[in-house]
Write a structure and sequence with these properties.
Elements (H helix, E strand, L loop, with lengths): L6 E5 L6 H10 L4 E9 L2 E10 L2 E9 L2 E3 L3 H9 L5 E6 L2 H9 L42 H4 L18 H4 L3 H21 L26 H31 L9
């Protein structure tokens, strides 16, 4: 099968994102196809993704004159962001799209009416194990959350924090990111599980016992009388001092200060 040539619209920049481009084409209700050309073993592998009114209806992939429709979407998505891939957009007429539909052997449901393709199903598989997580910017090492949080590419190995202020704007497929984080958490749990668990020590607080009260012996009548005489003496001394201080202030011409 050959897709009609159509009208060339534009070439996308290197390493364009599959999801970003396809979402744009869908929102524009475009009639035509995306062509992804990738040199493999010195021969271009070509993937075609056809849209009708912005709805993806047909995908096929060919390499070395071998046509593959079953894994077309996966191959197209895999090659999309490669540095040596060329991604082009071509426009088709309604008649040309009708010609494409005639080749039902390349439709997602052979022998049936044309239905929309789920172009995101299974094309962004998360790694099966933590060993498969790798970051090109980190030299192929396991990615770090801090780096993923600010990485605009958000690759399929991303472990970005979906709640992070910057990362949540860049994450393209949160389900993939969450699976990767589960892998990381699972690894950390397996390591910590081997460590013995120590029960927190319970601090025993002893109740405070009340101190025995000291009984005050009852005073005798003589002692009470002596206390009364002492209190009366103190009052008399204070009043006497006030009187004497008033006389002294008047003698030196400061009588006006007696009330202060």
């Amino acid at each position: 099968m050959k897709i009609p040539k159509g009208k060339f619209v534009k070439t996308y920049p290197d390493k364009s994102e599959y999801r970003t481009v396809t979402e744009q084409v869908t929102s524009y209700k475009f009639n035509g196809y995306l062509l992804v050309s990738t040199p493999i073993e010195d021969i271009d592998a070509k993937g075609y993704l056809v849209f009708e009114g912005g709805v993806p209806v047909l995908a096929y992939y060919e390499h070395k004159d071998v046509l593959n429709c079953e894994h077309a979407l996966k191959n197209i998505a895999k090659n999309f962001s490669k540095s040596n891939s060329v991604v082009e957009l071509h426009e088709l007429t309604k008649h040309q799209i009708g010609i494409c539909k005639m080749y039902v052997s390349c439709v997602n449901k052979p022998g049936s009416s044309i239905t929309a393709l789920d172009i995101y199903d299974g094309i962004e598989p998360s790694p099966d194990s933590i060993d498969d997580l790798s970051c090109e910017k980190a030299g192929g090492a396991i990615p770090k959350e801090s780096m993923c949080n600010i990485c605009k590419e958000q690759c399929n190995s991303s472990i970005a924090d979906p709640k992070h202020m910057i990362a949540k704007r860049f994450i393209k497929n949160e389900s993939v990111v969450l699976k990767n984080r589960d892998l990381m958490n699972g690894e950390s749990k397996s390591v910590t599980a081997e460590a013995p668990k120590h029960k927190p020590k319970t601090k025993i607080v002893k109740p405070i016992e009340p101190k025995p009260s000291i009984d005050v012996e009852d005073k005798t009548p003589e002692e009470i009388s002596a206390d009364d005489e002492l209190e009366a003496f103190l009052k008399e001394s204070v009043n006497s001092f006030k009187d004497q201080s008033g006389i002294i202030l008047e003698s030196i011409g400061l009588g006006h200060m007696k009330k202060q």
